[in-house]
Amino acid sequence: MKLVEGVYGVVNGRHVKSYAVETSSGMKFTCIEYGCIITEILIPDSNGLKENVVLGFDTLAEYIDHSPYFGCVIGRNAGRIGGAAFEIDGVTYHLANNDGENNLHSGANGFHNVIWDSAVVVKDTEVSITFSYMSPDGEAGFPGNLQVEVTYTINENNELLIQYQAQSDQNTIVNLTNHSYFNLSGNLKRTILDHELTLHSDGFLELDETLIPTGEIISVEGTPFEFRKSKQIGQGIEAGHPQITLVGGGYDHPFLLSPVQNQSQMTLFDLESGRKLEIETEEPAVVFYSGNMLTDDFNIRGTQSQKHLGLCLETQKPPNMIDDLRFPSIILEKNQQYTTQTVYSFGWDEGTGPMSHQ
Ligand code: FUC
């Protein structure tokens, strides 16, 4: 394992550190203290060519000015809160309405725009980077002083483990995720439409026209939301469904995860490059977002952004659920520990080319 520390940029006079971790078999992972952003993940393809598989920028200015939440940790709340308000213990709390009348990803003062403290632990076969932050009572509109930690551990098996921990001195909302956009083609050569997805979910949450869950669970059976057997994402989108049209031509829905045995809950595969990503989470749901709202008015490391250039698999609790007893609540009670983790395992098909030229 190799670790290189650096300075990514400066915000308000403060240096933002970067950490680059390399495994001996060829994965390279880079993250920064700003928003806990994962800026780059290099993975070999079937010919051994290492290329980037996440959307990201090379400058802090781009993240600050116009990032559609590339690679960051979202908090305190991932997803939308209807009417940008919620009630806890009879008190109504108001958040920024930054998505029509709703709150999206906690607004401009969310965790993606915060500089976190960091510490590293280096072992023989793994490197861990822990980011910590004390979010003060009332920040972004949420009650309670919330102490939060996010740890990225990269190991020699080319796995990325993300562990989240939080504790508050008042009842509050906590629903954290990482918002990496994946594109396994490598350096954004193609959109994600021909990526094959396996997602073990029997049902997803119907959305209303402002993308808030209506409360209805729709069975995936016989719909383009059926990914229990591997399917090309583009095929699903083309098949058409009012819920696909509603979100701008694609997926942007919470899928409820089903129990699995001896297989990953989610697998993403790109046949042409031979790259594969498997995801396992303790969370009950994943918001599968197929990059429908990515606009073409900015560049991503020299490539023009476009719709479907990346996809997010945001592991989390179903959004906007506070007192619907069918789902785990997004309320974290005073002095209780919030802990959760998600593992991303990267692999590549070594069958077709020499693992040589890197
Ligand atoms: C995802 C989606 C949203 C939004 C955002 C940038 O989390 O659920 O609709 O577009 O990313």
The secondary structure category is mainly beta
Count of distinct structural domains: 1
Give the helix proportion (percent range).
under 10%
* Rg, Å, rounded: 19 Å
Structure overview:
- With 358 residues, the chain is mostly beta strands.
- It has one domain: Beta-galactosidase, Chain A, domain 5.
- It is built from 3 helices and 29 strands.
- The protein has a 9-stranded antiparallel beta sheet with strand order 11-12-13-14-29-23-22-17-20.
- Strand 18 and strand 19 form a beta hairpin.
- The protein is globular, with a radius of gyration of 19 Å.
- It starts with a strand and ends in a 10-residue tail after the last strand.
- The relative contact order is 0.17.
- The site of alpha-L-fucopyranose (FUC) has 9 residues, from strand 24 and strand 27.
What labels would you give this structure?
358 residues; mainly beta; Beta-galactosidase, Chain A, domain 5; 5-stranded antiparallel beta sheet; 3 helices; disordered C terminus; binds alpha-L-fucopyranose
Summarize the structure.
The protein is mainly beta. It has 3 helices and 29 strands.
Show the helix and strand layout:
Blueprint: E1 2-11, E2 14-22, E3 28-32, E4 38-44, E5 50-52, H1 60-66, E6 73-74, E7 80-81, E8 85-88, E9 91-94, E10 103-104, E11 117-122, E12 126-135, E13 146-155, E14 159-168, E15 172-173, E16 177-178, E17 196-199, E18 201-207, E19 213-219, E20 231-232, H2 233-239, H3 242-246, E21 252-257, E22 266-270, E23 275-281, E24 285-289, E25 299-300, E26 303-304, E27 312-316, E28 331-332, E29 338-348
The structure holds alpha-L-fucopyranose.
